[in-house]
Amino acid sequence: MTSKIKIKYTQLFINNEFIDSESGKKFPVINPATEEEIVQVSEGLKEDIDKAVKAAKEAFARGSEWRNLQPTQRAGLLNKLADLMERDAQQIGHIQTLENGKPFAHSAGETHMAAGVLRYYAGWCDKIHGQTIPTDDGSLVMTRKEPMGVAGQITPWNYPVMLFALKLGPALATGCTLVLKPAEQTPLCNLYIAALTKEAGFPAGVVNVVPGFGPTAGAALAEHPDVAKVAFTGSVAVGKSIMKASGSSNLKRVTLELGGKSPLIIFDDVDVDEAVKLAHDAIFNFSGQICIAAARTYVHSKIYDEFVEKSKKLAVKRILGDPFDPKTEQGPQVEKDMFEKVMGYIKTGDVEGATLVAGGKRHGNCGYFIQPTIFADVTDEMTIAKEEIFGPVQAILKFDKIEDVIERANKTTYGLGAGVLTKDINKALKFAQEIESGTVWVNQYASLMPQTPFGGFKQSGIGRELGAESLDYYLETKTISIKLASV
Ligand code: NAI
Ligand code: MG
């Protein structure tokens, strides 16, 4: 599990330069597969966030360089960044795998998908415009869509490259400038992409990346009076603190993507082998550390026993190990804290009476690996059916009637993703219309495209990323009303 890669960028990226933090402090980035330190990274604190926001504010103010750049030039820069990310996809994938333990093929694939997201937003640059509006008093009224200003972006460690593109794309397409604080677990792949923004030719101050911890650097960004908008992906608790910080500072606009406890409903008319595989992937991909992970598998009673048995066979066959080994299907959990949190939930599942069907233990004795774990006979009241575990733990619940299962699936504070597997179009559409969820997949799971809006109902979030409407969360509408004299 050795790395041949030399890590080039470990400092803060402000005004197109890599610099040390004011305090000179550093923190270690740990490889979760080996528990070894990869490198030390400069730790941004409030004063560094201030510096980065100042750079972004000044870049925004120099209108001709960025905000008022010809839209096609801005598109050109985004496309160029996408080209560079594709050129270096192996390198970026390698760094991500070192930091968060994601199987390498997935990390490299994520970089290509992120480049696709940037190209999608490049396409929007010259298509952002207002309206002309007929009015009762005969004024000529038109609207302009204007960039909000400096965007503060706070991201987690599970999809650091994709989330960088999700945040950077709409901010830059609309003409905002930005300061991104990556997760403390995964600053390195984001610093690498920061270097690519400079190589692509973005003007100084447009993109700034400040690694650091949440309660210090993250909170400073959320509270900053010169930040017009914060886009956050992560936990509900931190999402709420960001809303509060916005309310008590400058009423900055806030968009949040906060995870879920997504249900996958499987009717008795499906091909059971196919459904078992789909449900397996929907929870175990990236060790269950996915906001849309199908963490509640509801299976019709007629196929329940067969489904559980086949799920077990698949789970015990899953290959865990070195994320750089092409045969590996599952790497480690991202860090010790998350490993312990997931092991705690597994214990709770046992104590509360669910039937442990597979896994339940640590895998090996080095790295934060957890066996793919399945609980059957899970009921809605159990903790493992209610709380976001963010680990490789499948809870299989039983149902009989569609009305009941929809009501049960909706009995959650979350509402991010949901899936339904059935050959019956009526059942599928009834479910799709009645489930309280930002996205519903029918006979598939977890497909996300740059064109499709993504976000949550209820406490899964506020606002949408991807798709056309994601741009609105970086734009203000200005109404210009002109009195016309009669001639
Ligand atoms: P977190 O919400 O604490 O961290 C996410 C980001 O927010 C990181 O960049 C972190 O530094 C920053 N942050 C933390 N505290 C902050 C604060 N007070 N102000 C501003 N920024 C702050 O998530 P964490 O600790 O990594 O995971 C905890 C749980 O959150 C997981 O078990 C999972 O349930 C959920 N989660 C959901 C994700 C999603 O995709 N929606 C991604 C990661 C975690
Ligand atoms: Mg946290």
Q: Mind describing the biggest β-sheet? A: 7 strands, mixed
Strand tally is 20
C-alpha geometry? globular
Task: Determine the fraction of residues in helical runs and give it as a percent range.
Answer: 25-40%
Mean pLDDT: 97
**Reading side by side through the largest sheet, how are the strands ordered?**
14-15-16-13-12-17-18
Question: Outline of this structure?
Answer:
Residues 18-480 form the Aldehyde dehydrogenase domain. 38% of the residues lie in helices and 20% in strands.
What can you tell me about this protein's structure?
Strands 14-15-16-13-12-17-18 form a seven-stranded mixed sheet, sandwiched between helices. A six-stranded mixed sheet has the order 9-8-7-10-11-19, with helices on both faces. α9 links the parallel β12 and β13. It has 14 helices and 20 strands. With 487 residues, the chain is of the alpha/beta class. It binds 1,4-dihydronicotinamide adenine dinucleotide and magnesium ion (MG). The site of magnesium ion has 2 residues, from loops.
